[in-house]
Amino acid sequence: MKRQCAPLIALATLSVCLIAVACRTVPETGRKQVNFMNPADEAALGLTEFNKLKQEKPISKDQGYNALVQRVGDRLSKVMPVPNAEWEFVVFEDPSPNAFALPGGKVGVHTGLFQISQNEAGLAAVIGHEVAHVVARHSGERMSQGVLSGAAVLGAGYVLNKKTGSNGVIPTAALGGAALLATKAFSRKQELEADRMGAIFMARAGYDPQESVELWKRFAAWRAQSGQQSTPVFLASHPLDETRISELQRYMPEALEDYKKP
Ligand SMILES: [Zn+2]
């Protein structure tokens, strides 16, 4: 009996150790997260992915769009803490209203976003939100959660297999689920956190953070009009529009405080 439990105890101990060494605090919100990804590895992954996208997707030559994105990017990158960032802001020819930021400071904006961002502050709200995911290291957190749930599943599968005499089908199937979790879009909690942090960053860059509320209202209207089918990836797991707007308003005073600082 003792011997059967040994791997399980080792797994549990390993998980506890990983959590202990990998606990970090998210800047601005102070939330504790478990993240055992290495920031340098995250940045390397971000760079590889960004280079791939630049090969695959057409890059916009529109001077107006490019100048606008560079201007907003310059102002925001000065206030957003991404260690060892090599900032790059690229406009992609893509009609879907989307934007993304990858670890290492790589930011992509679709031409389709401008119909909803509408003005410079609106664009700052979107880029601020996307880079906030990077600052908060939400991808690493998701991956860490995936690894931990994989470990938990392995442990549960081990016990179950011992009881049923099965040969490992259960953990394999369940591990697939854990891997899926790791690659899935950000969680609702992470999205709301990125909203809150994004408003702070745009305020520090000199943009009125209240414009972020207007931006998400425009997104809500666009989404209602176009239907869920065409929901861009970065909105797919997003919380209900009313929730995000009310949460954003709840945290607005802290962003406004930064905006009013001389
Ligand atoms: Zn997001």
Can you characterise this structure?
By secondary structure, this protein is mostly helical. The protein has a domain at 42-138 and 186-260. It has twelve helices and five strands. The strands form two sheets. The protein has a three-stranded mixed β-sheet with strand order 3-5-4. It has a two-stranded antiparallel sheet with strand order 1-2. Strand 4 and strand 5 (106-110) form a beta hairpin. The longest helix is centred in the middle third of the chain and has 27 residues, at 138-164. The chain is globular and about 65 Å long. Mean pLDDT is 82; it is low at 166-183. The protein binds zinc ion. Zinc ion (ZN) binds at residues 129, 133, 186, 191, 194, 234.
Bound small molecules, by name, code or SMILES, are: zinc ion
Radius of gyration: 21 Å
Largest sheet: 3 strands, mixed
Strand content: 5-15%
Assign the structural class, choosing from mainly alpha, mainly beta, alpha/beta, alpha+beta, or little secondary structure.
mainly alpha
Which spans of ≥5 residues are poorly predicted at pLDDT below 50?
166-183
Can you give keywords for this protein?
about 65% helix, 3-stranded mixed β-sheet, two-stranded antiparallel ribbon, binds zinc ion, about 260 residues, 12 helices, mainly alpha
